[in-house]
Every structure is written in C-alpha cells, then in structure tokens.
Amino acid sequence: MAKVSHSFGLMCVIATAVCLAEGPVQRISEVKKLYVASLGTVDGSDLIREKLIVQLIKSGKVSIVDSPEDADATLLGLAETSKGVRYQANEGTYGGSASGGTMYHANLVVRLVGKSKQVLWTDEATPSYFGSRSVSSNVAKQVASHLLKALEQGNSKQAKVGVATSAASHPPKSIASQDALDEDFTLKLQRLADLHSKGLLTDEEFKAAKAKLLQ
Q: Could you report the per-residue pLDDT of 134-170, keeping only the tens digit for each?
C-alpha cells in the first residue's frame, strides 16, 4: 500500500492574516454571514472550498460573503485530497482471493473564528473510498452539515465550552494577545507536520496530536 502523505502545507491558511472587524459574536447561533477563507494550496483544496461554499449556500441558512470584513465569522482551515493503492489478500478453504485497488482520501480540518478571533467551533472529516472520486464532495458535505447543525442549535459542545470558559475563567483578551496565541498554534501545527512528513510520527499519532491542539 502506498503511504499517503498528510502534510497539508499547514502554514498556508492558519497563518494567513485575516482582517476581522470589531463587534464580537458571542454565540455561534448569531453567525448569519460567513466568509470561507482559503483552505490551502495543495491538491484538492480549492475544489473542496468551492464545494463547501456551494453546500452552505444551498442550505439557505447562512449567507456567504466575499470578504472577512463583511462577515460575522470566518471559516479557516486546511483541505487535501490524495490517492493511494491498497490491496488485501484473503485466505479461504478452497483458495485465496485479493481485493482492493485505488483508494481516494480527503482531509478537511476547520475552525470557525468570531470577530474578536475567538474560536466558536471546530470540525474534521477524513473520508476514504475505494474506486471513488467523490471524496471532495463527501468531505464538503460532512463539514457543511456539521456546521449548519451547530449554527441551528447554537449550543454545540464546542461553543458552550468556549463561552463558559471565557466568561468564568478568563478576562477578555485583546486582539494582539489572541494573534500571539494563533501564531503559537500555527507553529505547533507546523512542527507536527514536519515530524509526520519525516516519518517520526505515524498517521495515528499525527491525527491524535492535531486533534489535541484543536481542542
């Protein structure tokens, strides 16, 4: 089986400076206008972004705008599609058989960031299929569905934890201090990506470490 790289060019999007206007969104349910930032420059990232936008527009539940200044919140993230070859041998009473072929993968990791750069919501989807080129559509549909559900409910686990923690435990952070946190987050992701691309982290270890950072 060919090893599929999951180094997405982590610096491409999360480190992108996004200009956000003042006027913080306190709850995810208050997001009515959304800007979808670039999802990277690797294979499939632009296609996944466009399909994600289409899914959100078709829902009629959120307006997609062309600039972060006009948005209530910005969707940041990373996206990639790739393919590899995988075969599996099976032994039976009357002989053996083999199955497999080309496997298509997609990975989409996103953060919904409010006007004061607070993280309102996060999600990740990583579908894989044999002999299918629909992974870009599938990953876009999954994340769009999860986001729309969170927007409707307004009380997703991520939003509740974020608001409660901010109100109970921390004073309001300035834009500058939040920028510093975002930069530190980006550097940590870059280090993880480098370790993974060099083979020092397995796919499972990389995924677990990345998920921990997104919490």
A: 889 999 999 999 999 999 887 444 444 554 555 555 5
**Integer CA distances (angstroms), 71 to 36, 38, 121, in order:** 9, 15, 16
Contacts of the segment 117-120: beta carbons below 8 A, 24+ positions apart: 117/20, 117/175, 117/178, 117/179, 117/182, 118/24, 118/162, 118/166, 118/178, 119/158, 119/162, 120/25, 120/27, 120/28, 120/31, 120/73, 120/158, 120/159, 120/162
Strand 73-92 relative to strand 63-64, pairing: unpaired
Cα 164 from chain centroid? 23
Residue 10: CB atoms within 10 Å = 22
Which candidate, 159, 1, 12, places its Cα nearest to that of 84? 1
Q: Which has the closest alpha carbon to 85: 6, 3, 8, 7?
A: 3
30 pLDDT above the threshold of 70? yes
Place of tokens 């309102």: 120
In this structure, are strands 63-64 and 33-36 parallel, antiparallel, or unpaired? parallel
How many whole angstroms separate alpha carbon 62 and alpha carbon 59? 7
Dist CA 91 CA 99 (whole Å)? 11
Q: How many residues belong to the chain?
A: 215
Q: What is the pLDDT of residue 77?
A: 94
Going by C-beta distance under 8 Å and a sequence separation of 6 or more, which residues neighbour residue 17?
A: none
pTM: 0.58
Amino acid identity of 114?
G
CA distance 73 to 31: 6
